[in-house]
């Protein structure tokens, strides 16, 4: 199967026919043929990262969900996103040499949601009441279920009763919420296996309303897409039959569905991926590399194939308006924020003077966000025009290696000092991840023991959308060094490339959709070699920011390779073409 090479309208870049197909598609809304306001595309996610609407996620999976809905709104695709509204969220601060979690209540009424009604889900012999709330945005809406004790995103261990309760509430409660509004899902996209229960309810509804069980399975499978973000099935949590007896089976009406589900337990345990694969005929991974290497087996032991649909971003949200204006004016992007047919040629008009002046505007925005966010020393960083800034911003997890640049502190200093450069580090440590919390403390004590690094390396706590945006628009060089093979896609590097930063990266995730010569690639046979290559690339990037010609060449090359990947409209049209082929 050659799924991994398909998927882009712009591959090969000069394929004019593909471009015309897409424009016709959006213009005439041919996708609406099978989608309508009453039969929308439904997108199911336990995690949504959308702070404007009061919902704070954990990372890329939630960002993807929010971006998908916004792009659908921009191009007029009827889409209903179904998610929990968490009544509390975590923030972090740096105090006494460590990260501390703070919890903050959130009220949906403050974010423009209105209540529709209540629905009920059976759990542990009780009826649990969930409020159904809704907020509309053009052709799309967020439909959420919530209750005061719903808890936070990822509260409790995966595999715990509380997680199962949240997942069951989204599936069974969310499906009833759709019915309250008179909506029938044309498609169900399951953003990871935690949303499996939504497809299960649909199967149960069909099978208990007179459809033959096998027909109901075929029908559900045909209209369900499972989007995988995880590389290995083995890492996934399991639930026990006993937990399902309390939370799941009492909510199912159809006897054959209960039997089907019960048969999927092995030694009294179940992994949701195994049943999600059974209930979803359509399956996607989030980058070409990820779709190729994700190692999943179905119940028969066959390797599962994933269609590669690389994550894009909502460019209207993540790219500085002044830069979007330039992309449109120079006909690099069209009115749908898709790269134009000859955008690569148009990029040659992009001059270093323009880049420098746009980055100055971005710098002003970064400075204004930093006034509210002191660094680890309690200092407010105010960058001066022309200051060179490197940044590393992403969740603090092992495989992303926030500590790689600190492997040789003397070398790091030697790279930064000649340019009087700053290095900004931002990222959330997952609650309870003692190991990463310790690594962060260690990095900051290395920083503290060097008099240059102490004043030029800044850790900014409570990484969120605001900081992600400010750093994308206001820094110069972005560092992305996951262990190769472990990043599913990553989207922060896309924000950086689109906002005219130079990208230093290992060849992994969505970055590996492009060629390794199109950005500042870090490669090495060992971590020491990778670190030394990283320092060399940092020097190269710093020098390019002093040399207009080099800057133009590097920037145009990055954009020519990655704008088609980055375009969220390209992603949505890939999904629609996969889900509703002509
Ligand atoms: C873009 C973004 C992400 C995605 O990060 P990756 O590490 O690139 O997947 C996570 N968190 C926030 C706040 C973001 O803005």
Care to describe what's here?
With 582 residues, the chain is α/β, with parallel strands linked by helices. It has two domains: 19-312 and 571-579, 3-Layer(aba) Sandwich (Rossmann fold), CATH 3.40.50.2000; 318-566, Glycogen Phosphorylase B (Rossmann fold), CATH 3.40.50.2000. Helices cover 40% and strands 17% of the residues. The chain has 21 helices and 19 strands. The chain has helices at residues 16-27, 60-75, 161-180, 196-208, 213-222, 241-247, 255-262, 272-279, 288-293, 315-318, 321-329, 343-346, 352-370, 409-416, 434-448, 451-456, 465-474, 492-498, 527-544, 548-566, 568-579; strands at residues 41-44, 79-84, 88-95, 98-105, 114-123, 126-137, 140-146, 187-191, 224-228, 238-240, 269-271, 282-285, 307-308, 389-393, 422-426, 457-460, 477-480, 502-505, 520-521. The strands form four sheets. It has a nine-stranded mixed sheet with strand order 5-6-7-2-1-8-9-12-13, sandwiched between helices. Strands 16-15-14-17-18-19 form a six-stranded parallel sheet, sandwiched between helices. Strand 5 (114-123) and strand 6 (126-137) form a beta hairpin. The longest helix has 20 residues, at 161-180. The chain starts with 15 loop residues before the first helix and ends with a helix. Mean pLDDT is 92; it is low at 1-30. Bound molecules: pyridoxal-5'-phosphate. Pyridoxal-5'-phosphate (PLP) is lined by residues 59-60, 63, 394-395, 463-465, 468, 490-492, 495.
